Amino acid sequence: MNPPDGQPPVDADRDDGPQLHQGWIAPEVAEEFPALALIECELPLPGDRRSPRGVRDQLAALSDRHRGATALALRREPVAGAYRIFFRHIGLEPDVTRTPIEAAVLERLLRGGFISRGLLEDALLLAVVHTSVPVWALDARSRDGRLGIRPARAGERLGRAAGAPPLAAGRLVVADQSAPLAVLFGALGPECEVRRDTATVTLFSVQVAGVPFIHVDEALWVATSTIAPH
Asked: Is residue 201 in some structural domain?
């Protein structure tokens, strides 16, 4: 599989963190969105899931930098704006279904700051606030092979668990070899969520047109280096 324009091959060893892998894109999706890419890596979680003081201090500093004026200016920034454009292309209205960076900043405004919720949650928050590129985490035990992006099929459900919610046919999903695991830019399947007994997580990010790979790489680096400092 050739990487999208502006993206170097990522199936290679890295000196500064976990190995990155490029996911697959269904042919009909790649034809419509040739710049779309999914990048993933696996990372062991530490036993202590509490955020250290340094992480909480970063969130406090970022809270001071992201106020009302910053939130209004976000949509004019190239990376944040690229996700807004992609949302519209896949049928999501970004002023209703917020892009991840806008959702994070809006919550900061409502709560008066970026709130620490634990090491993994804070790592994902730092990644998107620093770079405007979202990163998600799922329990590595829930996956069956490499991740990719494809349309949901008629009658499919979100995950393999009994009682998993149904999916609308055609909705773009993050899937493994046998089932959808997450709605693209939406919810994870119930069995994919990280739990207390999760030992290893799969982190993944989605690159869209207008977002250089270096920003995706940085987002994953921020998340992985926060969880497991190099």
From this structure: yes
Phi, psi of 149 (to 5 degrees): -125, 130
Identity of the residue numbered 220: L
Give the residue numbers spanning the domain of 50: 21-227
For residues 41 and 205, the answer to whether their CB atoms sit within 8 Å is no
Report the C-alpha gap between 202 and 182 in whole angstroms. 12
pLDDT in tens, the chain (230 residues): 334 444 545 665 556 678 999 999 999 999 999 999 999 999 999 999 999 999 999 999 999 888 767 767 887 899 999 999 999 999 999 999 999 999 999 999 999 999 999 999 999 999 999 999 999 999 999 999 999 999 999 999 999 888 899 999 999 999 999 999 999 999 999 999 999 999 999 999 999 999 999 999 999 999 999 999 76
What's the domain count of the chain? 1
15 lies in some domain: no
DSSP character at residue 12: B
Residues 55-89, buried b or exposed e (16+ Cβ, 10 A)?
beebbeebbeebeeeebeebeeeebbbbbbebbee
Map tokens 């998340």 to a residue.
223
pTM over 0.85: yes
Which CATH number characterizes residue 171's domain? 3.50.40.10
- In 3D space, the residue among 208, 142, 206 whose CA is nearest the CA of residue 176 turns out to be 142
Three-state SS at 166: strand
State the residue for tokens 């405007």: 132
